[in-house]
Amino acid sequence: MKRRGSFLLVCVLSLLSLLSLALAPGTAGAQASSLASSLSGPAKADYDAAKVLFVAKDFAGAEVKYASAYERSHDARLLYNMAACEKSLKHYARSLELLRRYQTEGRAVLTQADIEEADRLIETFHSFIGFVRVTVNEAGADVSVDGEVVGPSPLQRNLTLDLGEHRIDIKKAGFTPFTTKVLISGPAIIAVDATLQRELHEGIVTIHAGSDDTILLDGKEVAKGDWTAHIPSGGHMISVTADGMRTFQSELLVEDGKSRLVTVTLDPLPKRGVPAWVLVTGGIVLTTGAAVAAAAVYRSYPTLAQKPTPGTITPGYTETSWRFP
Length: 325
Hints:
This protein starts with a helix and ends in a 25-residue tail after the last helix. Among the domains are: 98 residues, Serine Threonine Protein Phosphatase 5, Tetratricopeptide repeat (Alpha Horseshoe), CATH 1.25.40; 66 residues, Sandwich (Immunoglobulin-like); 62 residues, Immunoglobulin-like, CATH 2.60.40.10. The protein is built from eight helices and 14 strands. Helix 4 runs antiparallel to helix 5 and helix 5 packs antiparallel against helix 6.
């Protein structure tokens, strides 16, 4: 088994070495000299700079310059050189895509040998890539792979990805984002079915109150006793009432996707006593009644009302005579 594994590893490394030779910038058949001579001005300067960077193994920088030359000249043969840079970066899926564009856009200038060579490279790259078919229930959603947007839904073709794990994100305004990961291990097609759910700006509110208590939300009666419901996010007024009890009232802030629990215990209203004015009046009535009763008694004993008759005895002295038997 070890010998077999070593043999396969040698085969893969040999294949990659051959690809390096086949996918060298500016070696697409007989096009190398004609491409260099057909470019001029800024496009030619970018092309020359790209060759220097490629030789220095700055493949990312070289591709930037090749891409700039392509944007200036729209010469499809530069796509082949860009594919060589991506292959050197081990981005086989991206290299394959560029080779396909090279074949399609360059048919007017490419020889049959150039096209067949690209076919062989594309076939070889199939061992190092996989495919993902993405379907979305909503049109116009942005589909991203590893943070890079690849297009809106529905996608016109399968995604071509390198071996390894990749993250797929699907987003659309007004909907909850969808995220998943896929593991590419070969040229098989992996299906990703995304169902976007509309965003609901609401939270869950639960109120525990007495069984006879009336619960009001924003002034509208919603239940008696306990109540649980989804309500829109934002500020709301909660009230709980009952006969003979103080009304409970409070503002409640509801946040997206969050739950709130409110427990309410109403306090009884104070018992009604004798009003103050009654106490005062009662006092007056009692005082008046006592005065009337006293007057009645006074009138019943007229002698009490008479003044004493003045006498002749000197005040402070009493004179009298005693007779003994």
